[in-house]
Amino acid sequence: MFTNIANEMDVDYQSINIRDLTANSHAEDISLGEYFRQKAPEGFALGFWKAWIHDLTGTDPDDIGLVYWLDFVKSAGGIESLGTKPSLNASQSNSDRATLSGEVFRARKVLISAPTPLYRHIKFSPPLPTDKKEYVESVHLGPFCKCILLYSSPWWRQVGFNGSFIDLSGPVVFSRDGSSDKDKMYAISCLIGGKYARKWSCLPVSRRVKAVKDQLASTIGPEQGEKIYDTIQTIEMA
Question: What would the CATH number be for the domain defined by 1-81?
Answer without folding.
Answer: 1.10.405.10
